[in-house]
């Protein structure tokens, strides 16, 4: 049995704590805030690949669907353009998406988008072993940029939609990898889903506690405590050192000293950007969430729609993602810090630091680590770390 300190009680921290406690380790979660959840408390967060969460629940107790409702988001999205045109994109329906695009933009538009999805299919086959943390998996060689793929689309509004998959991750479409086409592919192939995220937090925290994990709230962590190149615990802001044989760091990697991040520190030094707070860095959502009341109506805490409205401005500016409510809109402006910092000018989703660091016993999970942001990828980062630490 190893003593494991998990820094942060967002999604990555909760998934890590549950998996490691289920493996029989002595797990302590240190959270700077008063409660678990991190960014899961902020508005609707539709996601793909629910199988990642299903796998964790299946391995640690009752199946996911017996704990909370995971339901498809339909329609998957609304694309709203500056010229007044709109497209309602059905969920997980290639034929439905093709019809919607042909109706909105003219015959042949759906076939253009099908080519994007087919590109994403090929890219996913190459990337899947790397994303899932398979031993020996290596990044695929560069295959051009996302703008290269967009340039093949005759419909300019489709080019804007495709390039938004880069800008929402804080990247430049001119330098972001073409493999970002995996994102629309995953949405269209595996569907877009939603769940009661408050309930998800309660279940994960409760199940981890049942398996012996301890939670310490209002405990900000300065960083890992080291003995040479080996982690021996974490240092709290109080000056106390909480001893540990392994540390799972789910806050932004930029908060670690350079010598704990290896090569990533050199990349990071060239592209330093502000990081979100440690307890709000785990999942794919902007922390700038506001309600915009409609004229004559006061703002009220009505649950917003799970369907995002992606609003494209005139010109080449980044899209704005909103979630409509009867009173107004819950707005998230893409990009940037919500997904962590990109390494160089290439999108962060393929250039995040590895889950296993050069410091023995120090592991990285969360949106700032491999494989990237979003509920399924954050949960997958925790699964990769748990598998590396192994059973007690």
From TrEMBL:
<dbReference type="InterPro" id="IPR006076">
    <property type="entry name" value="FAD-dep_OxRdtase"/>
</dbReference>
<protein>
    <submittedName>
        <fullName>Phytoene dehydrogenase-related protein</fullName>
    </submittedName>
</protein>
<feature type="domain" description="FAD dependent oxidoreductase">
    <location>
        <begin position="3"/>
        <end position="297"/>
    </location>
</feature>
<dbReference type="InterPro" id="IPR036188">
    <property type="entry name" value="FAD/NAD-bd_sf"/>
</dbReference>
<dbReference type="Pfam" id="PF01266">
    <property type="entry name" value="DAO"/>
</dbReference>
<keyword id="KW-0732">Signal</keyword>
<feature type="compositionally biased region" description="Low complexity">
    <location>
        <begin position="298"/>
        <end position="309"/>
    </location>
</feature>
<feature type="region of interest" description="Disordered">
    <location>
        <begin position="298"/>
        <end position="325"/>
    </location>
</feature>
<feature type="signal peptide">
    <location>
        <begin position="1"/>
        <end position="21"/>
    </location>
</feature>
